[in-house]
Amino acid sequence: MNSRFELFVAMRHIKSRRRQTLLAVGAVTLAVAFTIISRASINGFEEVLLSIVFKMVPHVVISPKDGEDYIYLYRTLVESLQATSGVIAVSPMLISAATLSHEDGVQNVALCGTLPRELDRMSGIGSQSMLAGDLDSIQGGLRIVISKEVAEDLDLKLGDGLEASFPDAHSMNLVVCGIFDTGVEWDELAFVSLETAREFVGEGDVVTEIQVKLQDIYQADSLVARIRSQGYRADSWQRLFPEILRTIRLESVSNSLIMSLILIISAFGIANVMNMLVLEKTGEIGMLMSMGASSRQVLRLFLLESGILGLSGGLLGCLLGYVSSLYLNSLNLAFSSPAGQTINLPFLIGLQDLAAYLTFALILSLAAGLYPARRASRLDPIEAMRS
Fold it and tell me: Is the whole-model pTM more than 0.70?
């Protein structure tokens, strides 16, 4: 048998059992479509999670050397990082615990001395999260930017004064020049200029950490290795926030496992169709073999049939899943985050996902048809013709 004749026979066999063929192809179609829609939702969930978390979280944090409280002579390192390809922002920070007091209210916060422009590149607080005032104005002297929660707890508004104090620190009076709300619970954080923070802690030109933001978050480990080779302590977001990576991996693995099981179950439909074909076409198989068809050719014929079923279902499933994902994405489905934000869940699917699930469906279909195909190829031609 040549390949054209094998294809002709395969299509003839498939058409002879239209109802069973449609059911088998339909099962694969629905399984692949459901898998693609689920994959699109997981992709969207990962993007939302990363966008929320890394809106505020640095990708690399450089800390003081062992036994030291501060990073000294940090400016050279900052300049080197700023010149590194793929680095979006480098934010040196001097962080100290502080107690803010206003009238009868008291609130403990982390008082962060920062460069406002670099902080805005890092987190978008200055350009996206200010409810009132201006982050840049902390450069104008003894000024402070506080979160919405701190402002509400201490009954503060723009222009109000407060006192910042802490044991071993220099108490100072500060003026509220900005109030921010990121949508994330940052109620124990306030920002001042680096100069103000140094005056508060009574130190010179030092910082407690340097935060780095990257274009590609998965390049953090390689940057950490480079920084450590220069003698500094550094950690990537994977090490600082392992629960984020663990959540993403758990969602991806559980989803892949469930989807694989669904595809495997759908492949049994193809196995059933192929098995019934072998039983019904036993006489025809014997005739083909008596005319010179080899066992290998018969095996190839039935594998071709199962492959056609799997490929048809896979292509239809990819089309249905892709169109459904586009439709669901257009609905802008929303959910509420623990912080009270309303977040739209996108449905994102890439060509690599479509190709992967189509290939997987085809492989499963061939595997499902292997046993019936081997059974057909091992038939005795004379016995097959008699039956």
Answer: no
